[in-house]
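Quick one:
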Amino acid sequence: MTSSAPPVPSSDRVPTQVYLVLLAGIIAVSFASIFIRYAQAEGVPSLVIAVGRLSVAALVVTPVVLSRHRAEIAGLGRREWLLIGISGLFLAIHFAAWVESLNLTQVLISVVIVSTGPIWVALLEATFLRARLSTGVIVGIIVAVVGGVIIGVPASGGMVDFSNSQTLNGAFLALIGAVAVSVYVVIGRTLRPRMSIMPYIWLVYSVAALILLAVILVTRTSITGYSTTGYLWIVIMGLVPQLIGHSSFNYALAFLPATLVSIAAQVEPIGSALAAYVLFDEVPTELQIVGSAVLVVGVTIAVLGRGKS
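Output:
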């Protein structure tokens, strides 16, 4: 097919605005978990929050896509539509699992674990795309797993407490969210060179929203009857973390190596933890702080090691 997607600019002359957009994206996604917590405090179910943020983001870009990119969408082949469907499915799984994890465990634990995405991207590339895992990636994975074990097990009175299953369930859901979003990223790396960013985001967000809406209908989860404040937080999530945050990362990928963008995204757990401390008085334990630091270091090692043989 003939794609109208713009060519990727040379990375040796990166406009200053790219770094500013990337910084804005990091700040935006750092508040995602906070906005989710506020919506949950209003009694809004996790599924409704997930479908709401995706729907808002898709609706906002709809006029632009329909006015400027209809020909590009009409020219998509069967393989592209299949990949878009699979990508939307895993994006839906990501948000459904991660949002619910925030209902079960601390912001720090959930955000740090879900931020291990680059590691799972490397594993998926090695498995399905036959990419070679460098020594740095392998070391990074081992370090990150150790960190995940540390922060995934709550501590009480200086002793490890295995009785808090809610925290462990929340950590497990965050892990599912990390793996799911990694599948979405790997598919996106196949689709993005063939598609402009606006129709790509619009289609994948819309598919994910429709899948989650189907789950809501099957589970008979009500999408009405919640407070105005709860709906307001959903709208804010769709506009800030979804459009500004995720779109900023996709924008930066046209100018900067994926490795640099991935490393920059690892700042998110720090911003989220600081915001949770200020707004929710969530004070992490010493083990959780140590485990989070170890995990972020592991992810950074793995991302840096991807470009080395």
